[in-house]
Amino acid sequence: MEKTHLGTFRRRPVFVARCTLDDLDALQQFSDAVLRRDYFFKKGHWQYLLSSPHLNAVWAIGLGAKGRKESDEPLELVGLFVQHAKSILYNFFLRDDVRGQGLGGMVLQHFQPQTIRAKMDMSTGDPTGFYEKHGYRVAKKVASKGVAGKREQDANIALMVPATTHEHDHG
Ligand SMILES: CC(C)(COP(=O)(O)OP(=O)(O)OC[C@H]1O[C@@H](n2cnc3c(N)ncnc32)[C@H](O)[C@@H]1OP(=O)(O)O)[C@@H](O)C(=O)NCCC(=O)NCCS
């Protein structure tokens, strides 16, 4: 798996690597065992995403061995996110013990997505504050597909853009 070094976290190197269908079991295990408490993925979610590589990229966030910049050993998987159509970020999750210490910000800084689909009704809280802290603003609020009615008050997804983007930039 091709991996990119992003920086250091708790004296361990941070890498991101794009997943392939070979990583399906590892992803499924991570979401079942580590994320399940906070977020439930339907069976087939990862398989669908990995099977449409032209549209979706699933990125794994992993830690290498302490004090090393390069790491040949298998990485410890601590998070993941999905990049849709190159510049839309969603499904961004870190293992709960590594949250709130700058790792998410490091990943965001590296990828600099043009749009973020932030789910505001996460069991762990509304993450829009995290993105705002890192230079994004809410451009629009929409309701996800499963929400009936689609009234404004049902909106549970915030579409976020870099805070420097102005309305007329969208043409
Ligand atoms: C959201 C998430 C990826 C952020 O990564 P992180 O490493 O925890 O974030 P960072 O440490 O880089 O930044 C945290 C900052 O954002 C702020 N923030 C606001 N709302 C937040 C939230 N819901 N979760 C985490 N941080 C939040 C924090 O207050 C913190 O500011 P501070 O440094 O002044 O205290 C991670 O917390 C996570 O996996 N959360 C659960 C799942 C989730 O909500 N995912 C987003 C789906 S769109």
Structure at a glance:
The protein is α+β, with helices and mostly antiparallel strands and 171 residues long. It is built from 4 helices and 8 strands; from the N terminus they run E-E-H-H-E-E-E-H-E-H-E-E. Strand 5 (88-94), helix 3 and strand 6 form a beta-alpha-beta unit.
Give structural attributes:
binds coenzyme A, 4 helices, alpha+beta, 171 residues, 33% strand, 2 domains
Helix count, per DSSP? 4
- What characterizes the major β-sheet? 8 strands, mixed
Terminal Cα separation, in Å?
Answer: 38 Å
Q: If you compute it from the alpha carbons, what radius of gyration comes out, rounded to the nearest whole angstrom?
A: 16 Å
Q: In percent, how helical is the residue content?
A: 10-25%
Order of helices and strands: EEHHEEEHEHEE
Query: Which kinds of small molecule does this entry bind, naming each only once?
Result: coenzyme A
Give the averaged pLDDT, no decimals.
Answer: 90
Can you characterise this structure?
The chain has 171 residues and is of the alpha+beta class. It folds into two domains: 1-96, no CATH class; 114-171, no CATH class. It is built from four helices and eight strands, in the order ββααβββαβαββ. It has helices at 24-35, 45-50, 103-111, 128-133; strands spanning 3-9, 12-18, 56-63, 76-84, 88-94, 115-119, 136-142, 157-162. An eight-stranded mixed beta sheet has the order 1-2-3-4-5-6-8-7, with helices on both faces. Strand 1 (3-9) and strand 2 form a beta hairpin. The mean pLDDT is 90. The chain binds coenzyme A (COA). Coenzyme A is lined by residues 92-94, 99-105, 118-119, 122, 124-127, 129-130, 133.
